[in-house]
Structures are given as structure tokens and as C-alpha cells.
TrEMBL record:
Keywords: Cell membrane, Disulfide bond, Glycoprotein, Hydrolase, Membrane, Signal
Domain of life: Eukaryota
SUPFAM superfamilies per UniProt: Phosphoglycerate mutase-like
Protein name per its UniProtKB record: Multiple inositol polyphosphate phosphatase 1
Disulfide bonds: 87-437, 293-307, 469-475
Signal peptide: 1-50
Catalytic activity from the UniProt record: 1D-myo-inositol hexakisphosphate + H2O = 1D-myo-inositol 1,2,4,5,6-pentakisphosphate + phosphate; 1D-myo-inositol 1,2,5,6-tetrakisphosphate + H2O = 1D-myo-inositol 1,2,6-trisphosphate + phosphate; 1D-myo-inositol 1,2,4,5,6-pentakisphosphate + H2O = 1D-myo-inositol 1,2,5,6-tetrakisphosphate + phosphate; (2R)-2,3-bisphosphoglycerate + H2O = (2R)-2-phosphoglycerate + phosphate
EC top class, as a word: hydrolase
EC numbers for this chain: 3.1.3.62, 3.1.3.80
GO molecular function: acid phosphatase activity; bisphosphoglycerate 3-phosphatase activity; inositol phosphate phosphatase activity
Record region (Disordered): 1-22
């Protein structure tokens, strides 16, 4: 029997729970389904429909400032993994980035400086001889003030960010019903966050979604749960970027190079803006205006002010400069970026090994962990995503294995896989679901196990195949471990 929905747990809980009923693994049907239509009964769409270009929306091109729901809706093509009806999910690992946050203190100051600069530029234009060009100045720019003016604190999780994590938790609970039907215990459902408020608040928002209705507190029947953090300085699983000196040195050394690589784009866009608006923008102004565009579009849903200054091609180019920076300083650009994430991967594998032992030895419920849920940063999620080998181009995986350097993400209009908006938007996440399948097909499984175990990787809730595992959707645990 073949299913047509790639995410059978959505709105069909009673039928499949966290088991996925599917065709036998030997029939790899390419399912092309628009994620956005999933909730509407998830019809099977012909490839043509999925490939149809959509209207340009700047909100999809904000690199790592992109909102989670926007990113999920842009990620239109998913393949449905074939998981036997008899397999059950027994453990879940989650590594998530915090949700949408306010600009940091440093960025708030940058916007304050921008307000002063824009005032000066407008005044200059008014005093200039060319009165006709005054009409070219966008009206919002006259007397513009930053929305965050006077704020001395920043970087906190905002309510949109809370919602992202809360809603995400509700989908996780629905998708993996069998995993979360047990009574809460901090050792069964381990929730961890870094010692940074937006990350721990994200853990709390997630926990509220996961456990609402399961306790006795207030009208929402909430229950208290614990969020544990390692000390900032020694958190080698979630803040390795902060404790790895080699990385910090690399980053410091590399940042000027990245700026140099971005410069031609900024200069190109700056001269376009200068001639379009007859204002004497500097590249620093344009850099700040692009930052403002991202904040307005992401946090305030305003796209007709700063974002409107740029045309579509310019947005693509500016987005690419952000993605380039992420690639070089956090991603595949240099192996130190992701090798320092190995303790996290080890922690993931170890949690799976423990879950397998618990199953093989028939431990009673409540005595072993079912989920390890971690809330951290883009600097955590991106390296972890790289360790899983996601978002690589054609032969990149082989290059990494041979320790050869990768090419930079190609500049638009060429297409690329590495997009911050897809790799690491706010609340982006990787889930690794461990499945137990009965070993009753005559094949001997390793180490005298009665069952066989498979890992499924989901990036932003979409199942992905693993380049490190022969591009399988379901990776045998023994292979995943290597
Ligand atoms: C954002 O603005 C668009 C119009 O540009 C509107 O359709 C959409 O509903 C808004 N979204 C939110 C979350 O307010």
C-alpha cells in the first residue's frame, strides 16, 4: 500500500501515530510535494507544479534573519522516506536554533547611527541645487527614526519567536505521538539550552508547547519542566564556537577576507542606489540599510520601506553576501567550523546507543530517555548541519572526504544549495529520529541484536537523505555511527 503524504503524522495521527506506513523500501517513488499545501490534505503534485516560479518576496531572502514559517514554506520539495509499518520511533534528538529575536545592542546602535546619516543625506539633498531630485527620496526616509531607538538592551526572544518554538513543539508532539505519551520526567525528556537568555527562553517556549495540558497549573493545565545549561565557557556541546580557541583565531583572521569578498557587491549596489535616489550613500550606509530591511521585513513585516530601496537582483546579491559569510565563518568554508561540533554529534550518537540498549534489554518505561532536546544558536546548528552533510553541491561530499576545500557558493543568478534562509532561519532545527524495526526478515543484525535500528534526519521538519549514508533516507544506525 502506498501513501501519498510525505508526513503521515500530520492530521492523521490515529492512523499512523509515529509509525510511518509506506511502500516497501525497494520502490523509490519521487514524491514532489509543496510543503505549504501539506495541511490541506497533502495532495501529490506533478513536478511541474512544484517547479513553477513564485512571485518574488523579500521575506524569503533574509538569510539567517528569515522567519521559520517563511523558510518552511519556501522549502517546497521534499521526498517521502519509506519506513516500514512495523518500525517505531524510540528516541528523538533535537538541535534547534533560538527563535526570532530583537536586534542586539550593537545593531540597535548601528540603526541609531543610520538615522543620523539618513537625516544628513536628506538635508544635503535639500540644500543642493537639484530640487527635482528631492522627489526621488522615499518619503519614509524623511525624519526616519529606528523602531528600537533608545533601547539599551537587545537580543531577546520576541513573541514571534516564542510562537515559532511553541508551534513547532506542538507539531513534534503530534508527529511523534508515541514518544511523548509518557508522563514527563526530566531524565526521560531532557531539555537543554545554552546559558543565553534567547536560547533558554526558546527551550521554555518549546516546553510549554510540548507539555501544555499535561500538568495542573492554571487554565492551560501547564506543568513545570526543567531546562539545564552548561556554563557558557565550558559548553562544548552547544557553545563549542565559544570554547574552541582555534576557531576563534580562524574567525578573527578570516573576517577581513569575508568583508573584502562582500565589498564589490556592496559597491555595485551602492552606486545603483546613489543614482536611483540621488543621495550620497556610502557602502556602510547601504550595509546598514540592508540590515534595516532584514529587521523590518522579519520582525515588523514591513517590506515597503528599506527593502523597497533594493530591486530583486540587488536583494539576491545582498542575500548572497550574507550566505557567503555564513559559509566561510560557520559552514563548510573551513573544516574547523564543523569539526568543533563533533562533541555534539558524539552526544547525539551516545543518546541513541543508550536508547537501543534500553530497548534491547526491555527496560520499563520511565527508566530511560526518549528525547534530548537542545536549544542553541546558528553557530551551533550550522556546524551540526554540516556534520550531517546537508546542503552540499554535487560532488562536495567526496571533496570533504578527501579534505579538499570546497568552492564558495556560486553568485546569483547561478543557483546554489547553500542559502541561509533555508539552512538556518530563526528556530531552524535538525531532528534525528531513531527507529526500531523488528529483525524478523531472516537477516542477522549486528551484535546479536533482536532488532534493527535506523536514523531519520529531518531538517526544519522535512525529511532529508544523508550524503554520508549513501544518500539514504533511513540510515542503518551502525552506518550512521561511522
Ligand atoms: C505581512 O504583510 C502581508 C502583506 O504584505 C500580509 O499579507 C501578511 O498577513 C502579514 N503577515 C503578518 C504575520 O502580519
Amino acid at each position: 500500500k502506498t501513501r501519498t503524504s510525505p508526513l503521515p503524522t500530520e492530521s492523521e495521527g490515529q492512523r499512523s501515530k509515529s509509525r510511518l506506513a509506506m511502500a516497501p523500501p525497494a520502490t523509490p517513488l519521487p514524491f514532489l510535494v509543496l510543503l505549504a499545501t501539506l495541511l490541506a490534505a497533502a495532495p501529490l503534485l506533478p513536478p511541474a507544479a512544484a517547479a513553477e516560479p513564485e512571485a518574488f518576496d523579500v521575506r524569503r531572502h533574509l538569510s539567517t534573519v528569515t522567519r521559520y514559517d517563511v523558510s518552511r514554506a519556501s522549502n517546497s520539495v521534499v521526498s517521502a522516506p519509506a519506513i516500514s509499518d512495523e518500525c517505531r520511533v524510540i528516541h528523538l534528538n533535537l538541535v534547534a536554533r533560538h527563535g526570532t529575536r530583537a536586534p542586539t545592542k550593537k545593531r540597535i546602535k548601528e540603526l541609531d547611527r543610520l538615522a543620523v546619516r539618513l537625516g544628513t543625506l536628506v538635508d544635503e539633498a535639500k540644500q543642493g541645487p537639484d530640487t527635482a531630485s528631492l522627489k526621488k527620496i522615499p518619503s519614509w526616509m524623511k525624519g526616519w527614526e529606528s523602531r528600537w531607538k533608545g533601547r539599551v538592551k537587545g537580543g531577546e526572544l520576541v513573541s514571534e519567536g516564542e510562537e515559532e518554538l511553541f508551534n513547532f513543539a506542538n507539531r513534534v508532539k503530534e508527529r511523534f505521538q508515541d514518544l511523548f505519551d509518557e508522563e514527563y520526567h526530566p531524565d526521560v525528556y531532557s531539555i537543554r539550552a545554552t546559558q543565553v537568555p534567547r536560547a533558554s527562553a526558546s527551550a521554555v517556549a518549546f516546553g510549554l508547547g510540548l507539555l501544555s495540558g499535561k500538568g495542573k497549573l492554571g487554565a492551560g493545565n501547564n506543568r513545570a519542566f526543567s531546562v539545564l545549561s552548561e556554563s557558557r565557557a565550558s559548553d562544548i556541546c552547544l557553545r563549542f564556537f565559544d570554547s574552541c580557541k582555534t576557531y576563534k583565531d580562524y574567525r578573527k583572521r578570516k573576517e577581513p577576507d569575508v568583508d573584502k569578498q562582500k565589498e564589490p557587491i556592496l559597491e555595485h549596489v551602492t552606486s545603483a542606489l546613489v543614482s536611483r535616489y540621488h543621495l550620497k550613500f556610502t557602502t556602510q550606509d547601504v550595509s546598514s540599510l540592508w540590515f534595516l530591511c532584514k529587521q523590518e521585513a522579519s520582525l515588523l513585516n514591513i517590506t515597503n520601506q528599506a527593502c523597497q530601496l533594493f530591486n530583486e537582483d540587488e536583494v539576491h546579491l545582498l542575500e548572497w553576501t550574507d550566505d557567503l559569510e555564513g559559509f566561510v565563518l560557520k559552514g563548510y568554508g573551513e573544516s574547523i567550523n564543523y569539526k568543533m561540533g563533533l562533541p555534539l554529534l558524539k552526544d547525539v550518537v551516545q543518546s541513541m546507543e543508550e536508547a537501543i540498549i534500553a530497548k534491547e534489554e526491555n527496560f520499563p518505561d520511565g527508566t530511560y530517555e526518549k528525547a534530548r532536546l537542545r536549544f542553541a544558536h546558528a553557530e551551533t546548528l550550522v556546524p551540526f548541519t554540516c556534520l550531517l552533510g546537508l546542503f552540499l553541491e554535487g560532488s562536495d561530499f567526496e571533496k570533504i572526504q578527501r579534505e579538499e576545500p570546497l568552492d564558495l557558493p556560486p553568485m546569483p543568478p547561478q543557483r546554489r544549495n547553500w542559502k541561509g534562509a533555508l539552512v538556518a532561519p530563526f528556530a531552524s532545527n535538525n531532528m534525528l529520529a531513531l527507529y526500531q524495526c523488528p529483525g524478523n526478515d531472516g537477516k542477522k543484525t549486528s551484535q546479536d541484536q533482536k532488532n534493527s535500528y535506523f536514523v531519520q534526519v529531518l531538517h526544519n521538519e522535512a525529511p532529508v537523505s544523508m550524503p554520508g549514508c549513501g544518500n539514504k533516507d533511513l540510515c542503518p544506525f551502525e552506518e550512521f555511527k561511522v
